[in-house]
Each structure stands twice: as structure tokens, then as C-alpha cells.
Amino acid sequence: MAQDSLSVLESRDSRSTFTSDNDNLGENSDPNDLYMALTTTRQQLKLAHQQLKLLQQNCAELKQRETKVRYQAFHDGLTGLPNRSLLEDRFAQAASQAERHHKPMALLLLDLDEFKHINDNLGHTYGDKLLMAVAKRLNLSVRGIDTVCRYGGDEFVILLQALHNPIGIPVLLSELRKNLAKPYVIEGYTIRVTASIGVAIYPMDGRTYMELIERADHAMYRDKKSTRNVSIEVFTGREDEDTPIP
């Protein structure tokens, strides 16, 4: 008998206080005790709901921060374009697809001519806004599967995937130059800028990322020495008083 009583006591001690209190509420319990038990239950449920809501909110905030950090790690802070890290990753994926489907791809290295002229005469604020405008035009000039990257400073890289025929690249270059040469209107100034562009084709010019970047870089500097690229001209936005800034 003593052993049975001890088992009952141990069973009760192993339960929560809330469960033990409710076990004492039978059909003949005092209504006040029942009311207090129900009130306690409601308060506990309300508290649990608040804690769950707070936990969900914290999880959502952590996820947003993680997404933001991941985005910042792979995108340029000024233009929002992919940065070098993301470009290398996409190149690896594109190279794998090029091998599998036997379709070439190309890297275009683009450098704005005499960009320092903008910063020196108008200031870096105008230079930054010009870079953002150029980035937007470049994005609109390529296909959705292609990648436009801000490589650094006033340099951009365009990764062209799944080319049917590299012979069409000169046509694309002509269109890029034409789009970039259109005037940019920035806070009362009309800015005209040209670009030097170097091209390297996978796998003819190389099979690794660095091989193609080096080939495109050499081609870009050869293009920069060409007489077909004119200097930047910066004009005021008033047509009757347009004068070049030296």
C-alpha cells in the first residue's frame, strides 16, 4: 500500500504545475477555483502566442538581414550590378553549359574613355550618376541570360552566353557604342561619353576566366588607342549656351 502511494506521488511530481492544478478540479470543484484555472490558462496561451509572434518576427528579420548581406556580397553598391565574385560564379556556370551544348560565349571588357574628365570638372557625384546611367543602358542592351558586371571604377564586363555565332559580335559592339554615345542628361548637364571595348571568345581565346579577362583587357587597350573613339564632351543643358568644358 505504501509503495502504491509513493508511485502516485512520483507521478504527480513529474507533471507541470498547470496539469497538477487542473487534476484537482473535479465536478464538485469550487467555481472560483475553476474560474481561476481558466483565467490562468488564457493568460498562458496569450503569453505563448506573443512569444511565438515575437519569434516569427525575429526569424523574418534575420532572414531579411541574411538576404541583404548575401546581396551586398555579390553586387556593386553603386550600380546594383553583379560584382566580380558573382561574375566568376556565372562564368563557371556558363563555361559548363558551353562545353555541354558546344556553344561559344564571350567576355567584353568595357572602359569609359576619359572618365576622369567628368570627376575632375563636375565632381564625383556626377561621375557616380553617370556610372549608374551607363549600367542601366548596358543592361538594356543585352539579353536576359547575359550578365553585366561592374568590374571596378569605370570598367564593366559583359558575359554573353550561348552564342549561336561569334561573327555577330561586331554588330553587338556597334549597337553598344551607339547606345552609350547617346547624351546623358544629369542635373542640368548633358554629358557625352564613349567607351573602349575588348572582346575575348570562349574557347578560342582561352578556357579559364582569367585567360579571357587578360585577352579582353589587351584588346580593350588596343581599341582605346584607335582614333575611332572620341573624347568625352561635357555640355551645359541649355541649348543656347552649350559650351564644352575643357
Describe this structure as you would to a colleague.
This protein is of the alpha+beta class. The protein has two domains: 23-74; 84-240, Reverse transcriptase/Diguanylate cyclase domain (Alpha-Beta Plaits, 2-Layer Sandwich). It has helices spanning 2-13, 17-23, 31-74, 84-101, 115-122, 124-141, 169-181, 209-224; strands at 105-112, 147-152, 155-160, 184-186, 189-192, 195-202, 233-236. The protein is elongated, with a radius of gyration of 33 Å. The N and C termini lie far apart (108 Å).
Strand tally, please? 7
Instruction: State the domain count.
Output: 2
Largest sheet: 4 strands, antiparallel
Mean pLDDT: 82
How would you classify the helix and strand content by structural class? Answer: alpha+beta
CATH topology of the largest domain: Alpha-Beta Plaits
Order of helices and strands: HHHHEHHEEHEEEHE
- The oligomeric state of the chains shown is single chain
Beta-strand residue percentage? 15-25%
How many helices in DSSP terms?
8
CATH class of the largest domain: Alpha Beta
At CATH level 2, the architecture of the largest domain is 2-Layer Sandwich
Describe the strand arrangement of the main beta sheet, using strand numbers: 2-3-1-6
Radius of gyration using CA atoms only: 33 Å
Report the uncertain regions: 5-21, 227-246
Helix fraction bin? 55-70%
Let me know the CATH homologous superfamily of the largest domain.
Reverse transcriptase/Diguanylate cyclase domain
